[in-house]
Amino acid sequence: MSDFLSKTLERVKPSPTIMISAKAAELKAAGRNIIALSAGEPDFDTPDNIKTAAKAAIDAGKTKYTAPDGIAELKQAVCAKFKRDNGLDYTPDQVSVSSGGKQVLYNALMATLNEGDEVVIPAPYWVSYPDMVLLAGGTPVIADTSIQTEFKLTADQLESAITPKTKWLIFNSPSNPSGAGYSHDELKQLTDVLMRHPHVWVMTDDMYEHLAYGDFKFCTPAQVEPRLYERTLTVNGVSKAYAMTGWRIGYAAGPKPLIAAMRKVQSQSTSNPCTISQWAAVEALNGTQDYIDMSRPVFQDRRDLVVRMLNDAAGISCPTPDGAFYVYPSIAECIGKTTAKGVKVDSDEVFATELLEEEGVAVVFGAAFGLSPNFRVSYATSNEELIDACTRIQAFCARLS
Fold it and tell me: For the whole model, what pTM was predicted?
């Protein structure tokens, strides 16, 4: 069978986050008391106005094929959103709508990468970025950040990573997995570097835009540096902002030739996203934004709870992130220790595996995101579960010797 499968598959690996969530579900089904902090999914229900719009679309018979990359009404809503929230002017022929943000990113990479093209990806990164680049025939160039810079890429690091072969920078703020958010000034330092390298385009992943806490103010590259407008693909979606993960709608706006190329890829792969989901997304973007205002302070309280409790665990150091619903604590002081069962913790993967086995808490090990020794916690669940999970983590760390 191995001879039958594509050689391309040898370059990529399955999603670790999905694998860990599946393992946690398997243990739970077997009767274990499992708390899964591995999935990046809001625990709130999709707002009622959005569900009502979807039902109305069904009742109105809006259940047929649409244009490959989205209905006109949704593209208009995307344009209005970018103008309202980001001060960016786009027209509908500059917009692409896909089955989730992941497909938007993949379409763009498939439409632009040739063998030998490089893509700069700051680490820690969302697990799918490097593998999507590899599937598209490109070469990921990983730029490691550190806890000292709050997991943010510096201008010098970006400058060092760029070569004549660089085609894209993939930029994610607030970040999955670290929650790190770039201020206007921090982002301006990066865009100044990009202005010195006109062959490099920037692909933003703004999926966590509305999950920004405290004094942090979200901004996006083309907003900070308007001269980058013609070589920026600004990517977003409804999954995190409106608790619509299963509806599978992502969108992007950028230069017309790039959007046309992405449309061509999508027309010959999946064609249009789910029609009902598109009409639901129209309401999400155009309708009341009450859900965003309601959910943000809840997530901020959860963040503060998790950061406090993890910092009380022996050997864990947890920065306070600016946004998203993740923390990315360091376990550097736990490496080299031994669990109560006699297992040596020589990596963050072993730490996460033994934590799941001993305490029934599922987290994602840092190596999956390209930067160790760390792990990711998603705090998109109830305070009760978070307190229970963090108490178990504290107990696990206390037994390390």
Answer: 0.95
